[in-house]
Amino acid sequence: MLKIFYTIITISLGAYGLITRDFHLNFLMIFFMGLALFILAIREFQQQRKVYGWLLIIVFLFSTFVSIQSLILT
């Protein structure tokens, strides 16, 4: 349920940026995308697919770092 919620927010923010050409909210889009990937990582660990789980955790950490850096630099 959370994965769908975070994905809808990510798509909505991306569509808003493309339609209005206002990319000031990209840090939020990246942050919510990272949260959706984190939920997917938890699911992968539950299904005993640890390689994909760790890969998704790394992508989550990287996207969170990029989101925070974008917020600070903006």
Gross morphology is flat
Structural class: mainly alpha
**Strand runs, count:** 0
Helix content: over 70%
User: What is the number of helical segments per DSSP (H or I, 4+ residues)?
Assistant: 3
Helix and strand pattern: HHH
Rg from alpha-carbon coordinates = 13 Å
The percentage of residues in β strands lies in under 5%
Summarize model confidence as the mean pLDDT. Answer: 94
How can the largest sheet be summarized?
none
**How many distinct folded domains?**
1
How far apart, in Å, are the first and last alpha carbons? Answer: 31 Å
Which segments are poorly predicted (pLDDT under 50) over 5 or more consecutive residues?
A: none
List keywords for this structure.
74 residues, mainly alpha
What does this protein structure show overall?
86% of the residues lie in helices and 0% in strands. By secondary structure, it is an all-alpha fold. Helix 2 (26-46) runs antiparallel to helix 3 (50-73). The termini are far apart.
Fold topology:
Elements: H1 2-20, H2 26-46, H3 50-73
Helix pairs in contact: 1-2, 2-3
Summed up, what is this model?
With 74 residues, this protein is mostly helical.
